[in-house]
Design goal:
alpha/beta, Rossmann fold, 5-stranded parallel sheet, 4-stranded mixed sheet, globular
Length: about 200
């Protein structure tokens, strides 16, 4: 099963995903390919697969990516082969993905559970970004505008989850994932049974 989770900067998506991965060892986080250089302490194959722009562009041409995007001048993409290998091992793959990536994955026809984490209000999101203390006023304004633009595409998602408290949000998303997994298994199993008797 593929789980796609998006959310604007400051909504707490990374923390939610970290808690989900702790709660569900059968879920693995997708590891993207990128052309940007590794940062200190980042490990190739764990945080990202670090490759050259030339190799990345060759992978684009060969249709190797489920989705890819340019972010701040660097290329990022998800290898379909990597995802399918994890699925064959019996793992569910979780994608920390933006709206552009979701649109590409859907255009590719990728099945999955698409979840958008949203803030209780835009004022709440602004407070969270302020609290981080990592952005100046200009960057903060840009992040808020980007958040509004991302939230305008809510209809791309199957589920919207308000991140009011971490514990509640993680529990709700875990329930969504479990319900989706069982629904898929029942449908697939049902079709197999029906074909056997028709």
């Amino acid at each position: 099963m593929r789980i796609f989770i998006s959310g604007p900067s400051g909504v707490g998506k990374s923390t939610v995903i970290r808690e989900l991965l702790t709660l569900r060892p059968d879920i693995v986080l997708s590891v993207s390919y990128t052309t940007r250089p590794p940062r200190p302490l980042e490990k190739d194959g764990k945080d990202y697969f670090f490759i050259s722009r030339e190799i990345f562009e060759e992978m684009i041409q060969s249709g190797a990516f489920l989705e890819w995007a340019t972010v701040h001048g660097n290329l990022y993409g998800t290898s379909l082969q990597w995802v399918e290998a994890r699925e064959r091992e019996g793992s569910h793959v979780l994608f920390d993905i933006d709206v552009q990536g979701v649109r590409q994955a859907k255009a590719y026809g990728s099945p999955g559970c698409y979840i958008l984490i949203i803030p209780p209000t835009m004022d709440d999101l602004k407070k969270r970004l302020d609290t981080r203390g990592t952005e100046d006023s200009q960057t903060l304004a840009l992040r808020l505008e980007n958040a509004k633009e991302e939230l305008r595409h809510w209809e791309l998602y199957d589920y919207l989850v308000i991140n009011d408290t971490l514990e509640t949000t993680v529990r709700e998303i875990a329930s969504i994932i479990e319900a989706y997994r069982h629904a898929r298994e029942v449908v697939i199993g049902g079709l197999t049974w029906l074909r056997a008797i028709v």
